[in-house]
Amino acid sequence: MEPAREQKQPFNPTRHVTIHFAAAVEPMTHTSPPHKDGMKRTGSDSDRSEESDFDPDIRGAHGIYILVQQSDQGDQTPVFPVEGEAADGIMVFTHREAAVLYLQVANWTCGIRELSPIELGHWVPALEGDHVAFLIVNANRHQQEQGERAEHVIDIRAFRDRSGENLYDEITTVASTASA
Predict the structure, then answer these.
(1) pTM attached to this predicted model
(2) For the chain, how far is it from start to end, CA to CA, in angstroms?
(3) CA torsion, ordered 73, 94, 144, 14, to nearest 10 deg
(4) Angle between the 117-127 and 164-179 helix axes, to the nearest 10 degrees?
(5) Which residues pair with 135 in a beta bridge?
(6) To which H or E segment does residue 38 belong?
(7) If pLDDT is split at 50, 70 and 90, which confidence band does 117 have?
(8) I want to staple 83 with a disulfide (CB 3.0 to 4.6 A). Which of 10, 149, 164, 174 is the partner?
(9) Spans of all domains in the chain
(10) What is the Cα–Cα distance from 178 to 106, expressed in whole angstroms?
(11) 33-52 tens-digit pLDDT
(12) Alpha carbon 60 to its chain's center
């Protein structure tokens, strides 16, 4: 008779949090690239719009992807336990394809939302009120189903500079060292 194997619990969300920002964030729209010769100034200062033709934070230029479900309260993202920690974590993906693969393996009917570094910088501080202190980077659903703990976790409480670019750089650094 074989000894009973320890059955590990699947890695599933414990709750969902509404995606809200600590400060108002304007929705990102695609804008035209700068003129070939750079920005051309025409007209007087009073005639010029304060908007430029170039936005360095265009969606798709560089972004982070999260899983979302729509609810009456707005978009929500799943929250997962982080082993050995009192606070929970939210999954972030550095490539859209990784988020899609996760959803396919999990067989979930969630959507994917891209966050620009600016949105990321406004969203992460708002997570503290929801008792979320970790970002789980490029989670692998197969490994989670086998009971393996998340290896690539960022403790956002350790950051003094929570600007969007700093968080984005840290996420992509963790992802690149994980794949190396």
Answers:
(1) 0.71
(2) 42
(3) -20
(4) 90
(5) 90, 154
(6) none
(7) very high
(8) 149
(9) 15-22+55-179
(10) 21
(11) 444 444 444 555 544 444 44
(12) 13
- Average pLDDT of span 85-89: 89
Q: Give the type of residue at 166.
A: N
Q: How far apart are CA 132 and CA 152, in angstroms?
A: 16
Residue 175 and residue 101: Cα distance in Å, rounded?
16
- Give the mean pLDDT of the chain: 75
CATH code, residues 15-22+55-179: 3.40.1350.90
Please enumerate in sequence order all residues whose Cβ is within 8 A of that of 140, keeping only pairs 6 or more positions apart, or say none.
Answer: 102
> Is the pLDDT higher at 11 or at 104?
104
**Gap between the Cα atoms of 23 and 163, Å rounded:** 13
- What distance in Å separates the CA atoms of residue 113 and residue 136, rounded to the nearest whole number? 16
Dist CA 30 CA 139 (whole Å): 29
DSSP per residue, 86-118:
SSEEEEEBSSHHHHHHHHHHHT---EEEEE-HH
